[in-house]
Amino acid sequence: MGQITLKQVTKSFGNVEVIPSLDLEIGDGEFTVFVGPSGCGKSTLLRLIAGLEDISSGQILIDGQDATSVPPAKRGLAMVFQSYALYPHMSVRKNIAFPLRMAKLHKAEQDRRVEQAAAVLNLTDYLDRRPGQLSGGQRQRVAIGRAIVREPSAFLFDEPLSNLDAALRVGMRLEISELHERLKTTMIYVTHDQVEAMTMADKIVVLRAGNIEQVGSPLELYKNPRNQFVAGFIGSPKMNFIQGEEAAKYGAHTIGIRPEHIAVSETDGTWSGIVSVSEHLGSDTFFHIHDTGLADTITVRAGGEIGFRHGDRIHMTPREDVIHKFNENGLRFT
Amino acid sequence: MARAVTTNRKMINTAVAWLIGLLIFFPILWTILTSFKTEAQAIADPPIFLFFDWTLENYSVVQERSDYMRFLWNSIFLAGGSTILGLIIAVPAAWSMAFVPSKRTKDILLWMLSTKMLPAVGVLYPIYLLFIQLGLLDSRIGLTIVLMLINLPIIVWMLYTYFKEIPGEILEAARMDGAGLKEELLYILTPMAIPGIASTMLLNFILAWNEAFWTLNLTAVNAAPLTAFIASYSSPEGLFFAKLSAASTMAIAPILILGWFSQKQLVRGLTFGAVK
């Protein structure tokens, strides 16, 4: 079981209110991602759930039990930190066994669980090494191992991949997703990387300045963002926003169109501009287009074989059915 | 661009370093040399440096006249006891200041250090009276407590600096893993801070070993350590320099040897945190 409920939770540091009143329901077995720009309170929120910070008011329920004043160790949650936070003076084996040792499990049971976790995470050959002798990815796996052995009711991940290089990050992302598939345990994952959020989450919670902007599945947020902030934050490259006359044609203050929803042509289209930068990824090409009279830059995602160059004139046609309309408060309407 | 260090430059640096080293070490060297001279040679004018009749007579006289082992044992007891006692108090104190600081933590640290600026003689009278009242005069326990107290600010400061270097996330991880305060201190913080704790212990041991003011004023016979042993050789009948030197050499020998073997640890400890 691992159902977590936040009821009117607030957090202030001195006079600074980091989290104004917030309600959230995280279902058992769900992979929930907290995403938002840095300083949005996502890590604080995770630490409140973990019990590493005390909430200023409100209530935290874990499996229906009030856990507000329960110390971190007794909440039955396990956490993986950004810096891995391994114990440098202990071998990998002892690191993974530490929570079991604290729980005063039998030595034999400790060994069994450590071996099992090590096998799952491909760490068997490294059990007798110290964290200092491991690579970043291996360290992160040890940190995950230390979390798994406790068989917690939920895992908390605090930007666990941001210290890894890009290639490793993709690999670990898959491993964590697979782990979730296998364990079916509730996971709460904090990241500022919307790609991680989109690829891993069952449910994304978009935060800004301590407020929940929207909660939903990745595709829900992608297709139906509640406001301009969510629309801009989810999706890569970012959604294009156009104001003024062009928006007024659609009866909106601002319209938003995703780069993949604009078709390009050499000869004709609704809009036109000059290619400033073209990024060829092989499978796709991103064109950054200037002098459109719409916005500073319009980004378009086109097929990999389309070969406009810097300085070329390009014509664009948006897909009308996926244009998002926002009012002057940034709220989306249809 | 890195500064070009020429061979000449290196030689000059080495020479200067040796010169400063010798200058600092000279009083100790002179004491050791004098301890092997006769009383007459010890006060000869001009002083004799190396070419004298080497003798062990002073050592045998000193050994005969006083019970060196008893003083040595007292020194070990006082230095060791005050160090251990100090650590027991300082580890939790430094922990709380490093990891759960309050608004006033910095002030408290400074205030603690400021007590080291107080001239010891200023509190001699009250402490002496307290010792009489409590029957602690000339007792090892009493003196251990005083030595611990005067060095406590330094121990707390040093440990505080070491603990500050330990990432808070590791302690939080321990807390998530189910460690209580005791386990956190015992299994995580202390083992991680062992290099720091070792050099703190070492420094404190040396400071306590060399402490003369309190050890001389609060002891007579029973608790007298090696500092009192040295002092007993400056008698009203006159100074016996050679014997005084022999006594001094015997008194500083253990700590000198300890310092020699642990100098790496000591230097690392004292410069810890200075460079990231």
UniProtKB/TrEMBL annotation, chain A:
Residues of the ABC transporter domain: 4-234
SMART domains: AAA (SM00382)
Keywords attached to this entry: ATP-binding, Nucleotide-binding, Transport
InterPro entries with a match to the protein in the record: AAA+_ATPase, ABC_transporter-like_ATP-bd, ABC_transporter-like_CS, ABC_transpr_MalK-like, ABC_transpr_MalK/UgpC-like, Mo/tungstate-bd_C_term_dom, NA-bd_OB-fold, P-loop_NTPase
Superkingdom assignment: Bacteria
GO molecular function term, any single one: ATP binding
Pfam family, one: ABC_tran
UniProt similarity note: Belongs to the ABC transporter superfamily.
PANTHER family associated with the record: MALTODEXTRIN IMPORT ATP-BINDING PROTEIN MSMX, MALTOSE_MALTODEXTRIN IMPORT ATP-BINDING PROTEIN MALK
UniProt-recorded name of the protein: Sorbitol ABC transporter ATP-binding protein /mannitol ABC transporter ATP-binding protein
UniProtKB/TrEMBL annotation, chain B:
UniProt-listed Pfam families: BPD_transp_1
Source organism, top-level taxon: Bacteria
Keyword set includes Ribonucleoprotein: no
The UniProt record lists the keyword Lipid metabolism: no
Residue intervals passing through the bilayer: 12-33, 71-96, 108-129, 141-163, 184-207, 213-233, 240-261
Record family assignment: Belongs to the binding-protein-dependent transport system permease family.
Organism, as annotated: Roseibium denhamense
Protein name: Sorbitol ABC transporter membrane protein /mannitol ABC transporter membrane protein
Alphabetically ordered keywords of this record: Cell membrane, Membrane, Transmembrane, Transmembrane helix, Transport
Domain ABC transmembrane type-1: 72-262
Record's subcellular location: Cell membrane
Chief site of localization: membrane
Membrane-topology descriptor: Multi-pass membrane protein
InterPro entries: BP-dep_ABC_trans_perm, MetI-like, MetI-like_sf
